[in-house]
Amino acid sequence: MIPTHPGNKGGKPLEEPVVWEAILNVLATKGSIQQMEDMRARMMESGAKPTAYVYNVLISGYARHGQMTTSREVFESMSDTYTGMSAPNNHPSSHRSIDSNVYREPSTYEVMIRAELSNKNPEKAEEVLRRMEERGYPAAVFFKARSLLDGAGAGGGVGGMGGYYPVPVLGLEQAQGQTFAQG
Q1: Phi, psi for 12 (deg, rounded to 5)
Q2: Potential cystine with 31: which of 27, 92, 99, 148 (Cβ 3.0-4.6 Å)?
Q3: Helix axis angle, 17-30 to 33-46, nearest 10°
Q4: What is the per-residue pLDDT across 35-55, written as a single tens digit (0 to 9) for each?
Q5: Could you say which DSSP state residue 99 is in?
Q6: Model's pTM, two decimal places?
């Protein structure tokens, strides 16, 4: 599939994590756990280095299927960088990693909070929020995550797992008030 794409010069294994993130996102949202795990294994075999964004998708995908233990394991397998800093190794422009760690981003905390809330674990979501606060991220970043808990307490759907990134169905899911069943 990816190694034979015309854009992949020489048919070598593709190491670009953004492509793998997109594929995993589709499987996490629309596929099965087995499909997601198989693709994750293929990514690792290809030599691609996962990023926080790839892990965010995995956390979300496992949570979507009620596998919170695995979501938490993925979250806990990640590292934290210096207090107040966003993470290195997570952006294509810095594809040359400084080390082999996958560092949590503020978005990783948000995804984990959403995962806990979607699986009816508000106490665990609060714990993740406290850990995020300890990281010293800017107030706007922290309060955005805090609003997930505030929205969940008010009965809003803010904490739900609509997928880490929404996957549109040909961009038509909002057209004329129509909704499409998820498979």
Answers
A1: -75, 160
A2: 27
A3: 170
A4: 999 999 998 888 888 899 999
A5: S
A6: 0.73
